[in-house]
Structures are given as structure tokens and as C-alpha cells.
Amino acid sequence: MQISFALEKVNLQGVRLFAPASIANISCGFDVLGLCLENIGDIMEIRRSEVPGIQITSIKGQDLPLEAKKNVAGVAALALLEAHNSKLGFEIFIEKNIKPGSGIGSSAASAAGAVAGINYLLGTPYTNEALVPFAMEGERLACGSAHADNVAPALMGGFTLVRNTNPLDVCALPTPLELAATVIHPKIEVKTSDARAVLKQRVSLEKAIQQWANVGALVSSLYEEDYDLLSRSLVDEIVEPSRAILIPHFAQLKSACKAAGALGSGISGSGPSVFALSKGMTAANEVAEAMKEVYTKTEIPFEIHVSPVKQTGVSFLEDLA
To answer: What integer is the mean pLDDT of 82-96?
Structure first.
């Protein structure tokens, strides 16, 4: 996995970075498809420490464990240091702007930010794709499964397809230039374990054929910038029908998104967030208003994000001398 004899940036004491949110599954691509969001994410600072290992010094915005082995960023960072055979020490500060359990890759952002920041200070010995397995260890801690559908786009940017996790094989996919995402986060709890428990362990051959046809068509639509084909492909025959019951007013949201001009919509990750994809930011904002209208009639608090697809993953904001 190590790709070069990189020169460690010993003149830098740290780096400040943006760790982006992400949408996983994209309707038909359960556990394999994901995309990176431009303007939703955590702010992190990674600093050198004289104490070997990883220390989580502070977390702003959420009540999360500071002990490295109990924190997704800490676990991912420790996995990187072990693979790099490094005795160096790093301190991690996290400003959590992505709420845990929101369905837009909160744990993935922290894990991706931690490994990307340390890799940067080490002189970038690993590619973004090579960092994915380390970030996956954070996901293993978060939900018991080392999946890559959120961490891959958070590190690599754009759309990604995880062809395999053992051995890891991630495909970077193109992003149509006008594509934008709208996400509504109902402030309710949907545990990943519950979201997985409702899934059927067996599916019919007919449904499987429809599903992999949609995945293939969606990938083709990204390469061809064919928004009509993309719209027809955003159909989940297997997971969404089972999980829809966990999200209040889900059917109304989908209908409202369609009426507002969305290309398609679905459950973001394991929920409770619901995403819609649109052609252009104007359309995405109109979809946001439609989502808002559905949920303002309920007693459920919510927040809405509108974002382009981020073409790159973790962004480095400032070197810390």
C-alpha cells in the first residue's frame, strides 16, 4: 500500500482540514455506491505530539469518546500508524458539524479526516485510495462492519463504487457537472443495527436482476452525463422497501421531491436522512423547499442541506507551523 519514500513534513506542526459528509447507497447501490458532499462536513486539526500514538484532545459539537481506541478517528489513525510502523505521536481536534447517526457519513468523515491529515504530515506516502482500509477500521468501530461506501468518497471525492473490500478495489466514477444533492435530516434516531435487521437475507432473482441493471445504468449515466438515464436508475428494489417504514413520511417526501423536479430520491445510508439528486442548484433548492413543506406539517424537527457533489475528498485548509 505504501507508494513512495515520502519526505515527512517535519517543518509543520499540524494541519487544519475539512472532512466532508457523504451519501451512501445512492438508491440502487447498497453498500457499494457513495458520493461526496461539498459544503457539509467536520473541521479537524491534526497536530504533532511528543507522546507516541494518538490522542483525541477535544471534540466540539458532540459528546463523543476522547479515548483513541473508542473513537472512530482514533482507531483509524492508529491503524495507519501501525501499518506505517511509525512511533510518532499526533493530537486530533474535531469540530463535529455532521451529527452522528444522521445517515450522511458522520463517522466516515472523522475517520477519513484523521488518516488524511496524518498522511499529509507524513509526506503523503499513501494515495487516497490506499487510506480507505485505515478509515474502514473506524467504521468497524462505529457499526460493527468495516464498510467503505462512505469513507471511499470522503477520501477520494466524487462518486465511488466499491467493487470489493477483500482485497479492496474502489472505482472512481465521474460526476456530471450540474448534479446537486438535497438532504433532509429528520432528527430522529435510526440505529444502523435496526436498519440492517429489517433487511431480507434473501431476494428473488427477478429483483436482483432489476437491481444490478439499475446499478449498471447509473454508472453509465455518470460517464455519459445522461440525466434522464440517471433518473430512471435511481430505483432501489431491495433495501428501500424494507427500510422505508423506519422514516416518518418517507413516501410523502419522495412524492414531493419528484413533483419539485428531482431526478430521484432515496434513503441516505441507513437513514434517517433522505437525499434527492437534481440537475442544477436551482432545482436542488426547489426540492429543499418541497422537503421543508412536508416536514413543517409534522412535529419532527429537521435540517436540510443543499450541496454540489465535491470532486475531491478531504480538503486541507491551513498548514499549522
So the answer is: 95
Provide the 10 A C-beta neighbour count for residue 304.
Answer: 16
In the chain, CATH 3.30.70.890 covers 179-308
**Residues whose CB falls within 8 Å of the CB of residue 255, separated by 6 or more in sequence, listed in order:** none
For residue 6, the model assigns a pLDDT of 67
- Rounded (to 5) percent helix, strand, coil in the chain: 35, 25, 35
Residues tagged active-site:
139, 192
Please give the mean pLDDT across all residues of the chain: 93
> One-letter amino acid identity for 294?
V
Q: Which CATH architecture has domain 179-308?
A: 2-Layer Sandwich (3.30)
Q: Which residues contact 114 (CB under 8 A, 6 or more apart)?
A: 44, 46, 54, 73, 74, 76, 77, 80, 92, 135, 138
Give the class (CATH, top level) of 14-173+310-320.
Answer: alpha beta
Contacts of 317 (CB under 8 A, 6+ apart): 15, 16, 17, 18, 43
Residues with Cβ within 8 Å of residue 12, at least 6 apart in sequence: 48, 121, 319, 320, 321
CA-to-CA distance for 80 and 78, rounded, in angstroms?
5
112 vs 193, which has greater pLDDT? 112
Name the grid cell of 91.
Answer: 493530537
Phi-psi sector, 314: left (phi>0), alpha (psi -120 to 50), beta: beta
Q: Cβ atoms within 10 A of the Cβ of 320, count?
A: 14
Q: What distance in Å separates the CA atoms of residue 176 and residue 90, rounded to the nearest whole number? A: 38
Where residue 146 falls among pLDDT bands split at 50, 70, 90? confident
